[in-house]
Amino acid sequence: MEKMSLRQQTVTNMTHTTVVARSTETTTSDWKQALPVLTGSMVTLRELRLSDAPSLLTMLSTEEVARFISPPPTTVEGFERFIAWTHRERAAGNYACFAVVPHGMDSAIGIFQVRQLEPGFVTAEWGFAIGSGFWGTGVFMDGARLVVDFSFDVIRTHRLEARAAILNGRGNGALRKIGAMQEGILRKSFLRNGEYLDQALWTILDEDWRAQRVIWGARIH
Ligand SMILES: CC(C)(COP(=O)(O)OP(=O)(O)OC[C@H]1O[C@@H](n2cnc3c(N)ncnc32)[C@H](O)[C@@H]1OP(=O)(O)O)[C@@H](O)C(=O)NCCC(=O)NCCS
Hints:
Bound molecules: coenzyme A
Number of helices: 9
Distance between the termini: 41 Å
Mean pLDDT: 89
Shape: globular
């Protein structure tokens, strides 16, 4: 699970502007103590809690969600261990994992993860998984903008990478939609169910994200 969404994985309104301002209020070291709460138009992103384990098991262990990602835990206890691991890695400053909580709900319906690929997060990798009942609802885009803002504004990433199996239509479609650029194909780079799969490498640069954000911001005024 630790590798799950990192390997396989990647507001057009006033809310986005608000979130940017809120994210930048968090200093680069604060997040290691506790992740900030990021609020979008549809979802809140917050630190995972042990009590999220049952809902994450329900949401992320289905065949359609797990098909192109490293196998998620198969028990509540397994998810609890994963959640405890995310807290340790965050405290060590290596990694951040946000729970995705739709407005009006308490439980997590998915996760967004960011991990450093080199010290200081200059190059980082992100990943995500959301329960299939929430696919195509806008939840992904809302949460993705929050976590990409967090990566560039708070942990000061310069280059944000994502990997998606070529066969993962939704994963690649989601990365294209958020504005990531496909840089190439990592041939037979992901072992899943005994078979090596090709992956697409997608990247967002800080300068591209800032330029894109200006365009989104312009559209809302
Ligand atoms: C990846 C994930 C978080 C995206 O969330 P989502 O709600 O499905 O994403 P969205 O619907 O907002 O965007 C997906 C886009 O891909 C498009 N798409 C779907 N199937 C596609 C296919 N076979 N080929 C190309 N594009 C496809 C969709 O039409 C959509 O674009 P649109 O909104 O412009 O129509 C979700 O699908 C998921 O959790 N998948 C399982 C976990 C996973 O694979 N994670 C790793 C991804 S690298």
